[in-house]
Amino acid sequence: MIRKCLAVSLLALSSTGLMAAECSVDVQSTDQMRFSTDNIVVDKSCKEFTVNLEHTGTMPASIMGHNLVISTAADQQGVINEGMSAGVANNYVKVDDARVIAHTKILGAGEKDSVKFDTSKLKAGENYTFYCTFPGHVALMKGTLTLK
Predict the structure, then answer these.
(1) Tens digit of pLDDT for each residue in 45-73?
(2) 144 with 129: CB under 8 angstroms?
(3) pTM of the model
(4) Which long-range contacts (CB under 8 A, 24 or more apart) does 71-78 make?
(5) Which end of the chain has fewer beta carbons closer than 10 Å to its terminal beta carbon, N or C?
């Protein structure tokens, strides 16, 4: 009887993990101006979503800094243009820019940052993107974010 109860309990625990939505993603950035992924999927059952960014390169933020910014695809260029004017002190993101859904700070070698955002900011059918706003990096450092 004890074995049967244990087996049922283990089965219940393992199936719970399979049913739970993954509400975070780990993304690495490199000295070669690349993200480790070009697609982030946000499960629509998540109330909040967390992006964990790690700079796995060896260069400092002043030379090869990276951040991760999320906006609609339509807003990307405006966010980048105004972020340049905001400068490194503001992580190359305009202060209180309503077009920015979430962003990390600028990271250098070995640094990590996380950003959590309310998924109610995302709308089904909208095209979202993530990218690095450090000057010149967006050409190689960008990807899509999808709500599913």
Answers:
(1) 999 999 999 999 999 999 999 999 999 99
(2) yes
(3) 0.86
(4) 71/99, 71/100, 71/101, 71/128, 71/129, 72/99, 72/126, 72/127, 72/128, 72/129, 73/127, 73/128, 73/129, 73/144, 74/127, 75/99, 76/129, 76/131, 76/138, 76/142
(5) N
